Amino acid sequence: MPLLVNIPIDSIVQLDGQPREIFDERELSELAKSMHKNGLIEPLVVRPWNGGYELVAGERRLRAAKMLRWDTIDCIVRDMGDRDAYVASFIENFNRSQLNPVETAKAMKRMIDEGMTADEVGEAIGKDSGYVNWLLQILHCCDTVLDLVVSGHIGPWVAWHLGRLSRDGQIRALRKFNSEKLDAQEMVSFCKMIYAQENQLEMFKETKLSPEQMKALRTVRSAIQRAYQAFRDLRKLEEKGPGVVATANETWAILVLKQVKELKQNLTWLEKKLKEKKMLKGANDE
Fold first, then answer.
1. Beta bridge partners of 53
2. Residue 283: its pLDDT value, please?
3. Domain match, 74 and 106 both
4. Helices (H), 115-205
5. Is the pLDDT of residue 55 over 80?
6. Res. 137: pLDDT tops 70
7. The pLDDT of residue 17
8. Distance between CA 1 and CA 79 in Å, rounded?
């Protein structure tokens, strides 16, 4: 049965691998002021450890108590194994919304590495396994991306898409993000474009096309992706400063008009062929 005990603060050590890595000093100061005025509203949770105690839940409260120079603090003492202690610490931090996405993902990965399933991790925090696996994807990001997630400059949705890219692809996307100040939707679109480019060989691995045919298909797809991005960039410039297209060089305008006409014809032809493929596939499926 758990015991409520007043324990010397010096006898409490931090949980090994504490899920929460970053503590806001301003928030800790505010918590310390509240505890000075109102006392400790909720005791810490600890477990017996090497003749003393190891903290399971209440890291912020313990830090605030140290700021107040308290000698002792009320704790609930529980006998817990290593995994149960870590899970309890994670759940407390998660439920209090005190973990950033990277801390959450790292804690989930540790629990899975120690034998828990994604379903069990999700059940512990009231989420499904899909959420767990989705968040774990951001750990495939490079350290630069993870730092931006921790600082709040990039959200987990964008980080998930970055995590699907190679390291070179992530750096390329970050350069675009920094140079053009892309918003979240624009960043996701750019990541999808890079992902498609990096996985073109994968898309054609089961086809029976000749090398020349595969090269032609990849070239067309890449060209369409580049054109798509170029048009997005041009429209964005036009929205910021109307008249960009209208005031362009006359020779440029004549050439582009001709190319646009030919492009429309080719796109109409390609659309027709793709629809025929879709209809053929449907017939074969039947």
1. 12, 48
2. 46
3. no
4. 118-125, 129-136, 143-150, 156-163, 167-180, 184-198, 200-203
5. yes
6. yes
7. 67
8. 9
| Number of helices and strands in the chain (H, E) | 13, 5
- Whether residue 7 lies inside any domain: the answer is yes
Split into its structural domains, the chain has a count of 4
Contacts of 212 (CB under 8 A, 6+ apart): none
Q: What is the pLDDT of residue 286?
A: 43
Q: Does some domain include residue 9?
A: yes
Q: What is the DSSP letter of 207?
A: -
Query: Which structural domain range is residue 81 located in?
Result: 3-98
281 pLDDT above the threshold of 70: no
Domain assignment present for 51 = yes
Q: Whole-angstrom Cα distance, residue 172 to residue 189?
A: 13
Let me know whether 108 and 77 are in one domain: no
Contacts of 245 (CB under 8 A, 6+ apart): 234, 238
For the segment 91-111, what is each residue's pLDDT rounded down to a tens digit? 777 766 567 888 888 888 888
Judgement on whether residues 88 and 166 belong to the same structural domain of the protein = no
What is the pLDDT, as a whole number, of residue 249?
77
